[in-house]
Write a structure and sequence with these properties.
single chain; about 100 residues; mainly alpha; 4 helices; flat; Small_drug/metabolite_transptr; transmembrane helix; membrane; Small_multidrug_res
């Protein structure tokens, strides 16, 4: 269950990272409200996952999910580069998350 909570926290981290872009420096009300809501949910789910998972593992996975999702959505939504090196680096983050999952009870 803790891993599902952690995955959800990572998804909401992606939401607030994208929200930061759409809020235009917190000058647009609805994107700002959505960003703050995603932050609250993300931190809440991370906190719940930390009841069971080790801090280092949980934090690394949380930020990794956020990084991967934000980078991929940056490519898809904002036309950021999708060159081989960038995609390989994203793959390394995925490998790190999988590795942490395999070695953490």
């Amino acid at each position: 269950m803790a891993w599902l909570l952690l995955f959800g926290a990572g998804v909401f981290e992606i939401g607030w990272a994208l929200g930061l872009r759409y809020s235009e420096g917190f000058t647009r009300f609805w994107p700002t409200a959505a960003t703050l809501a995603c932050m609250i949910v993300s931190f809440g789910l991370l906190g719940a996952a930390l009841r069971t998972l080790p801090l280092g593992t949980a934090y690394a996975v949380w930020t990794g999910i956020g990084t991967i999702g934000t980078a991929l959505l940056g490519i898809a939504l904002f036309g950021e580069p999708a060159d081989a090196v960038r995609l390989a680096c994203i793959g390394l983050i995925v490998a790190g998350i999988v590795g942490l999952k395999l070695v953490t009870p």
